[in-house]
Each structure stands twice: as structure tokens, then as C-alpha cells.
């Protein structure tokens, strides 16, 4: 697991600007989606992944914990899946220009629909009521990549809790664009995975300062389970 290290001066700046350290710690799960980004074999399975992030396997238990707690509290779980194919050559040519033909061919082969790399990691505990959406760029919140924005708005969702891999690319891109699309945004400090602690922490700091909140798995699950307990007690009285 990453060694999360948010410098005290960063937290102090957040408190000065917002009045408290965590502005979204009391989010309403009924208006919240737990958005899990790119937890696919194409990033996690040795011998299959085109870009292997070993730390992604270590965050699977935390993702499963949050997903289960979110469902118990009446929230929504969304699995975001990166897809690349021949269409992406037209949809996002700048990426492929940067990567070059060899890496582009490997990316497309690994993340093509129907491939082993395209599938979600087997250890993830998905449920039939969960949503699955496909994105074709790093961010899940731009129209040319994914329809997640419209899907969530139709459900009355205004808050997103983001987990997945890698922290500093697809997860941070999704978090930043979510905020700029007017979603209250939280990144989970120990349910996102990057290649290094430095990359992971730098992205958390950037999001924390300007784009939303950061919370641990423990804080999120405690909040959700506390609400679920209250809802159960109220239902028993009725």
C-alpha cells in the first residue's frame, strides 16, 4: 500500500481556504457514486498489462470495502473501463502520436473489447445493480470519452468518490473534470494506486488543494456504515 504523506502545511492551507480540513466528509450516499477507474487486467495482470501497476492489486480490498458500504447506505457503484480500438486512433490521435506506433499497437491489443486485458480484475466484488461504463480517454467526465456525466445526473447524483489506477493519470483526470463539471469530488487516499508513492501523493495534494477532498477508506466506510445503521434504526421504529 502507498505511504500516504500529505504535508501539514497543505492541510493548513485547505483549512484557511475552506474552514475545515474535509468539506465532503459528510456526503449523502443517496446522491453519491463510488467511481472505480481502470481496475482491469490491462493495468494489473503480469504478462497481460501494457502498463503494469503492481500497487493496484493491493487496493482491491479497500475498493471492495467501500463498494459494499456504499451499496448498504443506498449509494451507487460505477466501474469505469478503459477501451481502446481502431476508433481511438481517430478519437484521440495526439495520444498515439506521443506514444508511437509500437506502444499504440500494444495498448489497442491490450484494451480492446473482448480481450483479457479489457476485463475487470477477478478479485473485484461487483454486483448486478452496479453500473459499468466505458471511457476512451483518461478522464471519464468529458463527452468525447464517456457518458458518465449524463448517467449520474439522471440519477440525481452530485458527488463522486474516486478510486482506481493510476492515481496521477486516469483517476486524477477524472477527479479534476468531475469537479469542473460541478460534481463534489473526493479521492480515496488508500484506494488509488500509482507507480510510486511520490506520484500518488503529488496527485492527492493537487486534488486536495484545488479540486475537492481526500478521505481514507476507513473514514468513508465509517461514515457510510453510521448512516446505514441510522437508516435501519429509523425503519425499525416505523
Structure summary:
The protein has helices at residues 8-18, 41-44, 55-58, 60-72, 86-91, 93-111, 148-154, 167-180, 197-210, 217-237, and strands spanning 32-37, 76-82, 131-135, 159-165, 184-193, 213-215. The chain has 238 residues and is of the alpha/beta class.
Number of strands: 6
- Topology order in helix (H) and strand (E) letters: HEHHHEHHEHEHEHEH
Poorly predicted regions are none
Q: What structural class should be given to the helix and strand makeup?
A: alpha/beta
Widest β-sheet, arrangement of strands: 3-2-1-4-5-6
- What's the end-to-end separation, in Å? 43 Å
Q: What shape does the CA trace take?
A: globular
Number of helices: 10
CA gyration radius, whole angstroms: 18 Å
**Strand fraction band?**
15-25%
Share of helix, binned? 40-55%
| Average pLDDT taken over every residue | 93
The main pleated sheet reads as: 6 strands, parallel
Structure description:
This protein is α/β, with parallel strands linked by helices and 238 residues long. Helices cover 47% and strands 16% of the residues. The chain contains ten helices and six strands, in the order H-E-H-H-H-E-H-H-E-H-E-H-E-H-E-H. It has helices at 8-18, 41-44, 55-58, 60-72, 86-91, 93-111, 148-154, 167-180, 197-210, 217-237, and strands spanning 32-37, 76-82, 131-135, 159-165, 184-193, 213-215. Strands 3-2-1-4-5-6 form a six-stranded parallel beta sheet, sandwiched between helices. Strand 5, helix 9 and strand 6 (213-215) form a beta-alpha-beta unit. Helix 4 packs parallel to helix 10 and helix 8 (167-180) runs parallel beside helix 9. It is globular and about 50 Å long. The model has no long low-confidence stretch (mean pLDDT 93).
